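Good morning C.,

I know you're traveling, so I'll keep this short. The sequence:
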Amino acid sequence: MIETLKQLVIEGGKINEKQAIALSQCNDKEALYEAAHQITRHFMGDKFDTCSIINAKSGNCSENCKWCAQSGHYNTKVTLYPLLPAEECVRHAVHNRKQGIGRFALVTSGKRLSGKEIQLLSGIVGNIKEACDIKCCASLGLLDKEQLKVLRDSGVENYHCNIETAPSYFRTLCTTHTIEEKMETINQARELGFRICSGGIIGMGETMEQRIEMALFLQREQVYSIPLNMLQPIPGTPLGDTPLLSEEEFLTTIALFRFINPQAYLRFSGGRALMSRKAQQKALYIGINAAIIGDLLTTIGSRVEEDKVLFTEAGYSLTRDTDWVG
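The C-alpha cells, ready to paste straight into the viewer:
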C-alpha cells in the first residue's frame, strides 16, 4: 500500500482521507518515512527555506487561544510591550541576513492591528529594505484588504496566518475568532500578490484524523509553506499540562503532510527544541525542508550555525531560490 500510494503521488495524483488514514495506521513506519523522503526529493529536490522572526509586539492579546502565552485571558509570564522601535527591528533583520537567513518576519500579538500600527510597520519594512536584501514577511493577525495593501506596497512579500488545527477542532481551542475569518485574510492577501504561509500546532489534543483533515484543507487551499509546530505546553494556559507528543507521532504526522502536500515547504517551527537531535535528523529526512531559525516568539529557538550544519548534513542546500507560487 505504501509503495502504491507513493507512486500515485509521484505521478501527480492525490491521496484521499481514507488512504491517508490507512497510511497513519501502518506498522512499518520506516517504510512510510522512506516513501515520504522519496516524495520530498522528487518534488522539492535539495532546496531548503530559512526564515527568522521578531516578536514586534508582545502580549495582551484579546483572543482566547488555549495554547498561547500572549493571550490576555491567561496568567503567563510572557513579557508585555508595544510595537518595537524601527531601529530594533532593522538591527535584527540585518543580523539575520548576515547569518545567511533568507527571510525575516515581523510578528505581532493581537487579533488585528490599528491603521497607525500598520503605517509604522510599513515604514519599518522600508527601512529594512534600505539596510539589507532580506525578504520580508509579516504575521499581523486578521487584517483587512486596505491594511494588507499598505504592507504589500511597503515591500512585504509573504503573509503568514496559521489555521492552527483542523477546522473541525478549532472551536474547541478558540472561540473569539474563526477559521473563516482567517481564510478571509488569507484570500485577500493572496489576491494582492502575497505568497501565503499557513500551518499549525500538532499535539493540542487533536486526533491523527484531524491532523489529516488539516493537511487536506491546506492542500485544497493551495498553501505551499506550512509551519508545523509541536505544542510546547506553557504554564498558565489551558493546555499547560498537556502531555508532550511522542517523537514517533510527530514524525508520522510529517510523513502524512508530505504525502498530502508534496510540493510544499514543511517548516520546522516552535517546539523543535523538545526533540532529540536524532528525531530532528529523521524529520529532515522524511520531509521537513524549511525552518524558522533563531529565537522564536515566547519559547526557546535555535542556534543558527548549528542549524545550518544540521540542514546541510541532511543533504539540503541553503543557497537555492526557494520562492513559491501562491
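Safe travels,
E.
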